[in-house]
Amino acid sequence: MPLPVPVLPEGVDPAWLPPAAFRAVGSGRTLIRGSGPLVETVHGEVAEACRRFGGRVVRDAEPEGGAYDLVLDLGVHDLGDEDFTLARQGGTTAVTASGGRGLLYGLFHVVRLGEAAFTGERERERHHPALALRMLDHWDNVAVHPVMGQVERGYAGGSLFWEDGRARGDLERVRAYGRLLAACGINAVAVNNVNVHETEAHLLTDRIGEVAAIAEALQPYGIRTHLSVSFAAPVLLGGLPTADPLDEGVRGWWAEATGAVYEAIPDFGGYVVKADSEGQPGPFAYGRSHADGANLLAAALEPYGGTVHWRAFVYDHCQDWRDRGTDRARAAYDHFVPLDGAFADNAVLQVKHGPIDFQVREPVSPLIGAMPGTRLAVELQVTQEYTGQQRHVCWLGPMWSEVLRFPAEQGSSVGELTRGGLIAVSNAGDDPFWTGHPLAQANLYTFGRLAWRPDAEPGEVLDEWIGLTFGPGPEAGLHAVFDGSWRTYEKYTAPLGVGFMVQPGHHYGPSVDGYEYSPWGTYHFADRDGIGVDRSVATGTGYAGQYAKPWAELYESPDTCPDELLLFFHHVSYGHTLHSGKTVIQHIYDTHFEGVAEVEEARELWASLAGLVDPVRHTRVAERYEEQLRSAREWRDQINSYFFRKSGVPDERGRRVHP
Ligand code: BDP
């Protein structure tokens, strides 16, 4: 039975799968061969496209030459479950796969190609995801949290999964979300926040049925469900006196709880754990290591083929800001590198791409490349917590691509070293545009495509998204709007890799000293003489020494450190000359003026697309541009006047740098 394509509620944007994207598939004759649940999904997709565009779909016939425009064949046996091949000969386009997921990805690839999939001849090409796990973490709370709301760091309305303190009754939108995710290659989702509050802790046991319902809605699109769990669950839920990972009773409790999870969700992916971090419980309370903690859960999951994703985001968030000896950037490496080789095979260490916390510019985490005996996954933040909160256009493709291509260790790139997969914090919610800012969809799409191919050209991925989403017309203008938006954002916010300077708590808008005298470990050390954090080995915190060669040497000296990271690694005077030839203070002034000017230009460009873009979407984006411009000006004025006052150095171009 073909599975019907999920129906979106009235007014919800179909994102990158508008009906028009299926024109080429839906106007021809298609043959589908094979059986299994995902084949029914594929059949449903093609049937819906044919219904719309007048084509025809047939099941399980012989693929006689020329009789079909498209053959989707699950018959072959020499491919991985997610792989597919594509070829075109004698007027027939053929997709072959060994697994249902492969067939589905093959269909979506044909949709992406559109007409181009049905013209000329094509040699057999094999498509294979570089990373087996391509996952989104949702920081969704089941119950609305008094401070963080329903979705922690969510800027797109409420949760797609949870409403009024329980799983949504109508999961059609969740099915549609699974469809969108599959169409960009994502295959796993964690459905609740890594900060596991009390209500959410129960999802693991007495409320697993709700998780199972969500999992069932995601399965037809090949998405496996994962759950964030509390390390203290045996105490919280099981009434045990301890959660000590080496305690037999605790091990038995996890084994039993996990068995029940798999009974409810046979293809369950595994657990996500934030432990000993920002107040979450963990193994330190029992004098145990994080390998002990992770291996406890790995052992419970192992009989079922599940994985524990153990986050490396472990640091002291209550450090004394007067103590310059503590460096938050060092923490993950210091905690985890000594444990290399101690983690079970089904334990994945999930590492944020930078050492601090998803700032607009950070160096690549030195942990990546330093733990050859551990499966690492890299975590990105698609939700724009520190990059404009989906009120600003900030397309992060170029940043992620730089991270993934970074040769962290002996010629191996980050993309090659992330054997445990690529994971990101989702930016989607129940907003009609999925992501609040309609253009933030491009970040979600780009993440999925880069997880499939970390060395893909981000600009090409962007063009794919634009083509699918908007059809022909506004491509060139849109590409320009996105292309430099990350660097523009960087220009008008915290300079030269120093980070933060955001308003405490919600992290939106400027506050240069917002975190300077707080215990979170995110400082810029600006005074009348200079700015930046000395992380050198010679005179600073020693963080630069955590890198492999050549990076350790390169970052150690301000003479060789790249400009964009200078203040992350060094404390320098305002008159310090950058490689660009400018002084630090002049760079700050110039970039802040430029950043605002670039937003003004982008806003104009968007305005000029009015006739080419659907009016509802156009208006929403236009409104957000007004806010982006207001905010960019605010950043410019606060940063420039702050540094003018600290340094006393006027702008050499004579502009007014303080209100
Ligand atoms: C920070 C967020 C916080 C998250 C934390 C994390 O501000 O809400 O809980 O990361 O990754 O960026 O656990």
UniProtKB/TrEMBL annotation:
Source organism superkingdom: Bacteria
UniProt domain Glycosyl hydrolase family 67 catalytic: residue ranges: 125-434
Keywords: Hydrolase
Glycosyl hydrolase family 67 C-terminal domain span: 435-655
Family annotation (InterPro entries): A-glucoronidase_C_sf, GH, Glyco_hydro_67_aGlcAse, Glyco_hydro_67_C, Glyco_hydro_67_cat, Hex-like_dom2
A Pfam entry, by short name: Glyco_hydro_67M
SUPFAM superfamilies documented for this protein: (Trans)glycosidases (SSF51445), beta-N-acetylhexosaminidase-like domain (SSF55545)
Protein name, entry field: Alpha-glucuronidase
